[in-house]
Amino acid sequence: MMTGLPFAPASDRNKGPILDALLDRLPDAGRLLEIGSGTGQHAVYMAPRFPALVWQTSDRAGELAGLAARLGAEGGPNLPPPLCLDVLTDAWPVGAFDAAYSANTSHIMSWVEVRAMFGGLGRALSGGAPFCLYGPFNRNGGYTAPSNAEFDRSLRARNPDMGLRDLGDLERLGRDHQLALEEILDLPVNNMLLTFRRAGT
């Protein structure tokens, strides 16, 4: 790894289990939109395993410099320059992507931003495209582990708009935007990978 690049230890720890799950859930070819790519660690690790899938990273303007630096240092031919995308304010391409992926974003976003993300993906994804969302989630209104409860409290202490989202709320939100929740996969350290499927073919 090139020194001086932004680095998130959690992204490094969870990338292996996530990739193993994505290998069975993402298309082999086409275009994928990653929302909230952050440091770009997942993109440069995962994209080489999908050589025919263009892995389009994105993030808000303030995060693009570090993301672009990592892509420039470690990216491959299927990693184009990052897209500036604020889910609330930036225009979303319509029907342009065959898959979407986002990790550890829904609990950092406000609920208004989560709604905007699903709304944007409902327009940006082609029919039948998967959206894989990774992170810690609540189930039936409750925490799935004490560590998740502690994490949620720490998030809300930083910003009351942050917090773990409930699977039921996300399932209903997906339905509102033609994204059906088709699978909930448990992953290590009390995280999950949710796979939504865009309606249509």
Q: How would you explain this protein's 3D organization?
A:
The chain is of the alpha/beta class and 201 residues long. It is built from 6 helices and 10 strands, in the order H-E-H-E-E-H-E-E-H-E-E-H-E-H-E-E. It has helices at 9-22, 41-46, 64-74, 111-124, 146-158, 167-176; strands at 29-35, 52-56, 58-59, 83-84, 99-103, 130-135, 137-138, 165-166, 179-187, 191-198. Strand 3, helix 3 (64-74) and strand 4 (83-84) form a beta-alpha-beta unit. The model has no long low-confidence stretch (mean pLDDT 96).
Detail the poorly predicted runs: none
CATH class: Alpha Beta
| Major sheet strand order | 2-1-5-6-10-9
Distance linking N and C termini: 40 Å
Helix content: 25-40%
Let me know the CATH homologous superfamily: Vaccinia Virus protein VP39
Within the CATH hierarchy, at the fold level, what is the topology?
Answer: Rossmann fold
> Count of helices?
6
Count of individual domains: 1
Q: What summary fits the major beta sheet?
A: 6 strands, mixed
Principal-axis shape equals: globular
H/E element order: HEHEEHEEHEEHEHEE
According to DSSP, the number of beta strands is 10
CATH architecture: 3-Layer(aba) Sandwich
Radius of gyration: 16 Å
Instruction: State the secondary-structure class.
Output: alpha/beta
- Mean pLDDT level: 96
What percentage of the residues does DSSP assign to strands (E)?
15-25%
